[in-house]
Amino acid sequence: MSDASPINVPSLRAEARDILAKLGVPAGRFAESGLPARSPVTGEVLTHVAPVDAAAATTAIEAAHDAFLAWRSVPAPKRGELVRLFGEELRAHKAELGRLVSIEVGKVTSEGLGEVQEMIDICDFAVGLSRQLYGLTIATERPDHRMMETWHPLGVVGIISAFNFPVAVWSWNAALALVCGNAIVWKPSEKTLLTALATEAIFAKALARFAADGNAVPKGLSAVLTGDRAIGEVLVDHPKVPLVSATGSTAMGRQVGPKLAARFARSILELGGNNAAIVCPSADLDLTLRGVAFAAIGTAGQRCTTLRRLFVHESVYDALLPRLKSAYGSVKVGNPLENGVLVGPLIDAGAYEKMQGALDAARALGASVTGGERVAAADEAFYVRPALVEIGRQEGPVEQETFAPILYVMKYSEFEEALALHNGVPQGLSSSIFTNDLREAELFLSARGSDCGIANVNIGPSGAEIGGAFGGEKETGGGRESGSDAWKGYMRRATNTLNYGRTLPLAQGVTFDV
Ligand code: UN1
């Protein structure tokens, strides 16, 4: 541990409790012997949350199913009105919720607030969508017939979310699921129960306003299950949950995906990423430096979309690397609630140990590591300097997602070789190319280019806006959430054929005269 700049943060317990009280989280949600809610900023336990047991989880799922039976008949634009009110409540409580995200996850202030902005954005998107759940009219081969496609609500949507975007990712799913006519049951990460309860309280304000405007609110429309993995399993196994959208590690997806498939339920999986960028000879290096630094160091490397691998062309390697190293050396690591700090803590000791394990493995392969050391703070708070790892080959830890600020840098000479390495890992979430060469940029975006769900030019791989579909291929799980037509994943499609004639012509020229 280096004592160069010790990080001393005063207790955040009183402030966290104040925010929870102010937002109206019911006292019954807390219990002295319950699940500990910690802050990675100080390492302290902020409070304890009452756990939900399997029986209560089942009751909540069944209530959500009953709520769905009523909610599906509410006109979609009216459902959108509830989400509009939720967006208003989020605007009104952005400061408190953003602050709580920073306290509970350790995000710097602007990223804590940005997370709530992402929630507001998806609410706006979903409100518009509530008047656009379009189906098709399809040409039919039969005279006096009409064929069309309609989209119907699906049922109870289970949402399993990760600690790193503790509320935004829930809102991507919740806002769409609600306008699509579904009920929602949420199993948040055990590491971020307080932001989940705060979000539930803010949603309750929207529900109260919706009811006060004279709308019927089905009881149980939205539930939060505070519990461990066993509670997540109740959600995954329940026959009245036709869809589970799960965000987290590939290991989690390997558990959840097959269980859902076995009962023919749907899944939307957003799992591990091992995102890369290629820096080409023509790259604008000033822009590249900023893009790489934000994507690799931001959020202390704890985004699914964090930049983890960098392929730099040999002609610009010596121009870029010293600048990058100096950015790594000077970036301020510390109390994320303080102005000017860009890197907050890792979520917990486990994350720190995994980071050190990956760095040790890289060193054993001959890599040269700059940074990565722990910065002195309270025993239970884990602050690290971001690590820049120059490594000769893509192997070992480079092929895995380590949820920490480690950037593996590799030199390349041929574009095709860099592209092959770029795609040569099991994950496929997000990707970038920095180039001013049209051919390289277009090739990267083409069918022969990046194999990821997100591919960017002259922008880092992280920090996507909600309008696009979010998700990735291969071990990332294949699911898409948020924008574009991701809403279709939350509805069931029906093909309808209607005969307005007086005869019954059969398709394919089949005759059947009785
Ligand atoms: C995640 O890390 O799970 O694109 C989501 C981004 C954010 C969302 C990340 N909008 O980095």
Rg over alpha carbons: 25 Å
What is the percent of helical residues?
25-40%
Uncertain runs with pLDDT below 50, 5 residues or more? none
With strands numbered from the N-terminus, the spatial order across the biggest sheet is 12-15-16-11-10-18-19
- N- to C-terminal distance: 87 Å
Task: Summarize model confidence as the mean pLDDT.
Answer: 97
Q: How many helices in DSSP terms?
A: 14
Class per helix and strand makeup: alpha/beta
- Quick one: overall form? globular
Ligands bound to this protein structure: 2-aminohexanedioic acid
Give the biggest beta sheet.
Answer: 7 strands, mixed
Q: Quaternary state, please? A: single chain
- How much of the sequence lies in strands comes to 15-25%
- Counting DSSP E segments of at least 2 residues, the number of strands comes to 23
Architecture overview:
- This protein is of the alpha/beta class and 514 residues long.
- 38% of the residues lie in helices and 20% in strands.
- The chain contains 14 helices and 23 strands.
- It has a seven-stranded mixed beta sheet with strand order 12-15-16-11-10-18-19, with helices on both faces. A five-stranded parallel beta sheet has the order 7-6-5-8-9, with helices on both faces. Strands 3-4-23 form a three-stranded antiparallel beta sheet, with no helix packed on it.
- Helix 14 links the parallel strand 18 and strand 19.
- Helix 3 packs across helix 7 and helix 5 packs parallel to helix 6.
- The structure holds 2-aminohexanedioic acid.
